[in-house]
Design goal:
Blueprint: E1 8-12, H1 16-27, E2 31-36, E3 54-55, H2 61-73, E4 79-83, H3 86-94, H4 96-99, E5 103-104, H5 110-117, H6 119-128, H7 144-150
Parallel strand pairs: 1-2, 1-4, 2-3, 4-5
């Protein structure tokens, strides 16, 4: 198959995982582009395999929908949407209806995805099935009382940027 006729993939979030996805798919002959809206270095945007990535750190989900629409307009037929982060999987799950006409999407039911990706829900699910769950706390960097609670969290702690600890 010629490179011009090769299938297209769009990588959502071009962080280090997105860069590895791009490298593997590119080496396999898949044509790629990508979208990155997270506030991490978009390493994959600089890959020789990624054509015309759109990088817009910090934009809201509605803007990511528009960015993905622009990228899909550049390709012939439906592209495969590749998610490089939990946030990208969650986004694709939440906006499945808007994306399905333009992309081939991972097939998973939305409700279980949201539960599996949300750390607080993961802890509640683990507790429901009888697993020991350490105490947790929500920490907001803009709340002094919340920050004071950070000192009481035992190590090791697991957290998510932009989410609660």
């Amino acid at each position: 198959m010629s490179r011009a006729a090769a299938p297209w993939a769009v990588v959502v979030d071009l962080n280090k995982t997105g860069a590895l996805i791009a490298r593997c798919l590119g080496r396999a002959g898949v044509r790629l582009t990508g979208a990155d809206t997270v506030c991490q270095p978009p390493l994959g945007a600089h890959s020789r395999h990624v054509e015309g990535a759109l990088v817009r750190p910090g934009v809201p989900p509605e803007s990511l929908l528009e960015i993905l629409s622009q990228l899909s307009d550049r390709t012939a037929g439906k592209s495969v949407l590749m998610c490089a982060t939990d946030e990208a999987v969650d986004f694709c799950s939440r906006y499945r209806g808007a994306l399905a006409g333009r992309f081939h999407l991972p097939s998973a039911r939305a409700a279980p995805l949201h539960e599996l990706l949300d750390k607080g829900r993961q802890a509640a699910l683990a507790a429901r099935v009888g697993l020991a769950v350490p105490p947790s706390a929500s920490i907001r960097l803009d709340d002094p009382q919340s920050l004071a609670a950070l000192a009481r969290i035992p190590l090791a702690a697991v957290g998510e940027a932009g989410k609660s600890l």
